[in-house]
Amino acid sequence: MILNEKQQMLRKLYRDFAENEFTDELLDRLEETGEFDWDIFNEMAKYGFLGIKAPVEYGGQGGDSMDYVLMVEEFSRVSPVLSLYANTSNSLGSGPLLFCGTEEQKQKYLTPVAKGEKIMVFCLTEPGAGSDAGGTLTTAVEDGDYFVLNGRKTFVSGAPVADYAVVYAKTDPTQRGSRGISMFIVDLKLPGVSLGKPEHKMGIIGYPTCDVILEDVRVHKSDLLGPKDRGFATAMKTLDGGRLGVAAQALGMAQGAYEEALRYSKERKQFGRPIKDFQAISFMLADMATEIEAARELIYSTAEKKDAGDPEASKLCAMAKYFASEMANRVAYKAVQIFGGYGYIKEYKVEKFYRDARITSIYEGTSQVQQMVIAGNILR
Amino acid sequence: MKYIVCVKQVPNTSGKVAVKEDGTMDRSKMATIINPDDLNAVEAALALRDENPDAKVIVISMGPPPAKGMLHELLAMGADEAVLVSGREFGGSDTFATSQILAGAIAHIGLDKDDIVFCGRQAIDGDTAQVGPQIAEKLGLPQVSYAADIQQKDGTLMVKRMLEDGYMTIEVETPCLLTCIKELNKPRYMTVRGVLEFDQKPLTVFDFETLKDEPLIELDTIGLKGSPTNVYKSFSPPAKGEGVRVEATADGIRGMVEDLCEKHIV
How far apart are CA B266 and CA B257, in angstroms? Predict the structure, then answer.
């Protein structure tokens, strides 16, 4: 796909920002401490990166999915974990508000999130409800002007640094499966909200993840998001956009790993020649470049179709995530292989790309869930 | 209040240099960037504008129509208006003719009491550092070159002027012209909204017709005819020879130290 002038300018902006601001020192610090870096987050806020798709009247930039995808790709090319910093607020955090927030809710929550003044995270997964999100056990019971929430949400990306969460809870236990689920905006400072310990993860270290525990949390009815008992549809719609973001993240890290391997193949000499001269290596590079390009075209065209309201968009988002995340794993594997022993050493960037790639085929719907979505669409 | 910033599009130094048969650079074959020092000048103007929201930042460049792309980026960074000075009559200008044209264009925009003209210290392609000072001379403006700090108050500026081994602090009245160096600031990036909305800001093209009534602009003061200097020859310098490998032995190191002493490096 040929980018128009504005898209090219955005790509330049994102690339310049990532290459200059995501310094090795910062990336090492994230890896060592696992802690959220507020300085880079605030810097991202200053340039509008946290509200790409939010409308201008709610503090956003008024951009589209393509503008957003380009950012995630370019950020992830340098640092997959820092692409997440900008991803959450644009995607899972603000998505439900954009789809079904009232004017008051948008003013109150979307505006500060889009400006980067507040962080909103997404609480869907539970210990017993992962791929089967319909198995939600968290409950919300009406009590006067309030709903009382009880339950435990798990693997909540960004929860330790968040101000608010979108929480899915069962409001009608008589309805089975994904029905009878509602969405709530929960202020994480409310009495009864507590957080689990930050998880020790394989990759994307530096963006903390933990459980959110709700014990008799009283949420005002004005914070019910969207129609009661019908929250699951919004969750799925939000996840369409989220999947496109993860696909772009996978694409970016694959590009980053490929560029590292390409450079190294020209420097590293074995048997008296640069290893790029061996077909075994050059064919791996050819495969990597081809798969990356295929993913890129799929992601870009999906972004455009999604914004155009194409009825196929949901299926295409699943395809983009499925293909790009599996591709990123294959590419990262080959990048480590080309680096040989050095690729197994933490000082080399491909080691981190390899670990980071692993999450992309798991979160926001595993590859197998994407296959279910795709199959469900084509066999309808 | 206006802050006028002169900017130049230059070849990207990380790319290859293309030279035409006549010895001049083939700019159409080279990737371009905004001259780095000019970005510091733009940032200086934007920072002052942030303090004085009534002020306007106008970026101005002389060059062929593709230079609009660079001006778009500057609008996306936050400049309020852009002017491209472009026309066949202006082609082939050396620094003298370029400054003549830019001075004419700035005169055409008009300078008021509080206005400041900003330039980068020098462009990385020609490295002359002449255009800024020449514009000041031709407009009869006071000038401070090598600005490393700028404070504005009550119609005067306090400018820290960097020298090789120290700095001068100079008070200067506006309107004036400053040439900026990289120590002055860290240029900001474009913003997302700036990119999405740059085309809502004015970008005006000044051609010869626009400027022909300015006293500085005559057909024999601009373009090739107005240029007292000509490029005689340009070439890529020969690549450096291979390095010398020094054995890590007492003799090897002694030899290396002797070589370095001979070349007055140590």
Answer: 8
Please list the helix, strand and coil fractions of chain A in percent, rounded to the nearest 5, in that order: 60, 15, 25
User: Is A47 in Cβ contact with B195 (below 8 Å)?
Assistant: no
Q: Which helix (H) or strand (E) holds A157?
A: strand A146-157
* Residues A182/A140, Cβ–Cβ less than 8 Å: yes
DSSP per-residue string spanning A201-227: -SS-TTS-EEEEEEEEEEEEGGGEESS
Assign residue B54 the CATH number of its domain: 3.40.50.620
Distances (CA, A) of B21 to B201, B233, B235: 40, 10, 10
pTM of the model: 0.91
Compute the count of residue pairs across chains A and B with CB atoms less than 8 Å apart: 45
Residue among A9, A56, A71 whose CB faces B190 most closely: A9
Q: How confident is the model at residue A59 (pLDDT cuts 50, 70, 90)?
A: very high
From the list A297, A256, A319, the residue with the least C-alpha distance to A3 is A297
Give the residue from chain A lying closest to B198, CA to CA. A6
Element housing B52 (H / E): none
Which residues of A are known to be catalytic? Answer: 364
Task: Give, as one character, the DSSP assignment of residue B212.
Answer: T
Cα A54 to Cα A115: distance, rounded to the nearest angstrom: 9
Question: For residue A101, what are the CA distances in angstroms to A5, A107, A111, A121?
Answer: 33, 9, 12, 15
CATH assignment, A233-378: 1.20.140.10
Tokens, residue A44 = 């991202």
Q: Name the maximum alpha-carbon separation found in chain A.
A: 79
Contacts of B77 in chain A (CB under 8 A): none
Tell me which CATH homologous superfamily contains domain A120-230: Butyryl-CoA Dehydrogenase, subunit A, domain 2 (2.40.110.10)
Q: What is the ipTM for the molecules in this complex? A: 0.90
**Total domains, chain B:** 1
pLDDT, one tens digit per residue, over A280-295 is 999 999 999 999 999 9
Can you tell me the distance from the alpha carbon of A161 to that of A156, in angstroms, rounded to the nearest whole number? 11
Domain assignment of residue B233, yes or no: no
> Which CATH code fits A5-115?
1.10.540.10
Interface with A, mutate which of B12, B195, B198, B201 (most A CBs under 10 A): B195
Listed in sequence order, the residues at least 6 apart from A1 whose beta carbon sits closer than 8 Å to its beta carbon are A297, A300, A301, A304
Over residues B199-254, the pLDDT tens digits come to 999 999 999 999 999 998 888 889 888 888 877 777 777 877 778 888 889 999 99
A86-124 as b/e: b if 16+ CB within 10 A: bbbbbbbbbbbbbbbbeeebbebbbbbbbbbebbbbbbb
Which residue, among A288, A278, A218, A214, has the nearest Cα to A257 in the 3D structure? A288
Chain B residues with CB under 8 Å of A61 CB are: 191-193, 196
